[in-house]
What does this fold into?
Amino acid sequence: MPFGDFLAALKDNPYFGAGFGLVGVGTALALARKSAQIGMVAFRRHYMITLEVPSRDKSYQWLLNWISHYAKNTQHLSVETSYLQHESGRISTKFDFVPSPGNHFIWYRRKWIRIERNREKQMLDLNTGIPWESVTFTAFGTNRNIFFNILQEARELALHEQEGKTIMYAAMGAEWRQFGFPRRRRPLTSVVLEEGVAEKIIQDVKGFIDNPKWYSDRGIPYRRGYLLYGPPGCGKSSFITALAGDLEYSICLMSLSDSSLSDDRLNHLLSVAPQQSIILLEDVDAAFVSRDLGKQNPIAYQGMGRLTFSGLLNALDGVASTEARIVFMTTNHIDRLDPALIRPGRVDVKQYVGHCTRWQLSQMFLRFYPDQTPSSAEEFAKAALLSTDKISAAQVQGHFMMYKTDPEAAIANANSLIV
It folds into this structure.
């Protein structure tokens, strides 16, 4: 059969025609799909801009709060429940709705922005046990300023909510995480120390903050260490909290007796502490005791966790220690501390915070009862110190709380402060 006749026969064959048609349609669809994919990739590359923010980034929580503010009409929500304890002791519950994992669309500055919140189900943060998350912003155009504007607005919104409050951070794994909700700043006048003590510390701290060049010009490491020691309940931690509020600083709480704390982790945490923050090491005697006491109890001298005493000393003032840092330590038993820990360079200012004096008692009385006279305050102080001179500020505050509106009763029952 001639070749031309063979082709004509294939052309007239219905089975061949149907198969050829299917192959052609399939090929055309495959080409169209591939072209659409290539076109979409090219469109995204040249006409869209994307920003991905992982959950470990500091701006992640800011952005979630910002999204909640703008994506008010979204129907896919997650709830975050928190408890807020007021100064009166009353506890209220607060519910915050944030966009759940998935896609969300918002209209921002005459542009549609697609927001995708992803949560990894198979990957967890080993430090916190929380799944890894990320949020991705996609917008038309190639101008990245839109993302700068979003980040700036998210930051300002977060700062506005924290205005007038003190943020507490706790060490979690290799980073600092916000501990609870920002607390209302405590005024310095609410903590009454012995006359002149608070002013001395405040002047020293502010002098350190305001003079970084003085340190650099003289080659002195720009860091400052403070030790407040004395009986419990006398206002050491309360004063540090009030000082942070007055300086508009945050507080980074760290326990040296944490069993998971190692030398490397301590050094890392001190180097990545948030800017404008006070690092607070409470009850340092609970982690390490002095060498002399350590001879009697070697385990106590070695510490309860993986942190070594030499590691602590190096973190405070070794060659790898960071600068622009303020560290406050507190202890109830200064005699248990090794002299190497509290020598100058590691602790620059040591201040005893003890039981209330007559002056302190008078000032506390006038603060709780501002309409009373100084003579009434003196009368209370004299009655309180009649039988003992070991009265803590916590005891006095508890006493005043029992007689909130009755200063005469507070004076008449001053002897009940004796425990």
